[in-house]
Amino acid sequence: MSVEFLVTTLVIVLTPGTGVIYTMATALSRGARAGVIAALGCTLGSVPHMVAAVTGLAALLNASTVAFQSLKYLGVAYLLYMAWSTLKDKGALTPDEENAPRPAAKVIVSAVLMNILNPKLTLFFFAFLPQFVDTGDPRAFPRMVELSLVFMLFTFLVFIGYGVFAAAVRHHITSRPHVMLWMRRIFAGSFVALSAKLAFF
User: Fold this and answer.
1) Cβ(61)–Cβ(67) under 8 Å?
2) How far is residue 21's CA from residue 164's CA, in Å, rounded to a whole number?
3) What's the chain's Rg over C-alpha atoms?
4) What is the pLDDT of residue 102?
5) pTM of the model
């Protein structure tokens, strides 16, 4: 496994995007455990992209403008939905009451959907990843699986780091209603900005 692949993967994962924002928002509102669950969901959202890449569907999607555009605009719509939810009183950045935690399954499903509809991951797995695999290598298939799993591991660990950090400062933020209001606005604005960037990607 090349150093170039490891460094590039780390840079991609560290760059704040939809998954990082969602993980931090979840950790701020519900604590470190929820942040870890969100990180797991974002990581699991990479699986469909990995499966598509290693089974040869990459060429099909890259050749179909309609398919890629459809995926992109579904992602835009979902990001706008996340922005709207975040602004609501019961949105992603509203502290839960201790007796009414958000189900882990719901956190995971939201995170998985977000990453499934993220063309940045599609481009990574469909275009970037194969560059590190020799198509003439008889072990090309397991090699792509190996690289994909490393990417997912990096994603999980880095996102946990973001979530733990957010949870660590949670009390200082959630105990101040005006700060929470502005945090909701900032996160909602981030989702809107990401959706706009994605729409013109």
Assistant:
1) yes
2) 13
3) 18
4) 65
5) 0.70
* Of 18, 189, 187, 175, nearest in space to 95 by CA: 175
Which residue, 108, 43, 114, is CA-closest to 78? Answer: 114
pLDDT digits (tens, 9 = 90+) for 86-115: 677 544 445 454 434 567 888 888 888 888
Burial (CB count within 10 angstroms: exposed 0-12, middle 13-18, buried 19+), residue 12: middle
State residue 101's pLDDT score. 58
Both tokens of residue 173?
Answer: 């933020």
Distances (CA, A) of 167 to 16, 30, 40, 97, 160: 17, 8, 16, 16, 10
Is pLDDT larger for residue 105 or for residue 119?
Answer: 105
Q: For residue 199, what are its two tokens? A: 């729409």
